[in-house]
Amino acid sequence: VLPHMIERRSGRIVATSSMAGRVGMPNIAHYAAAKWGVIGLVKSVALEVAQYGITVNAVCPTTVNTDMIHNEATYKLFRPDLENPTAEDALAAFSGLNVLPIPWVEAQDISNAILFLVSDDARYITGTAVEVAAGMNARTAA
Description:
The chain is α/β, with parallel strands linked by helices. It has a domain at 2-63 and 106-139: Rossmann fold, CATH 3.40.50. The chain has helices at 2-8, 20-23, 29-49, 72-78, 87-96, 107-117, and strands at 11-16, 54-61, 129-132. Helix 4 crosses helix 5 (87-96). The two termini are 34 Å apart.
């Protein structure tokens, strides 16, 4: 798809990273490393294609209310002290990640950020990681 964007001298690319790729997280080093890599790729490609009017950005969600978090393996990550933790058992741990008093954001919140990044309103935003983080990012260095 990139060759077509270069030919048109216009385009938007948005990749999905994670707050784990911004701050690191215990017990999921493999995931955090992959998401850090997405941010590095976005920044590098943004530098390579800016001359063609193409923007490249990433969104970095906190926990999102999807099947990715609603499963036994994830509940155990958040509540290793319990043999068979449930969603209810893990709720406080999910909420503890965020500054806003919510356990997770909705998929629509991520979609809205992506729609903004591909809109004309974001035409001068490139090489950026947009954090949809419910304040999780407020605890990290600027």
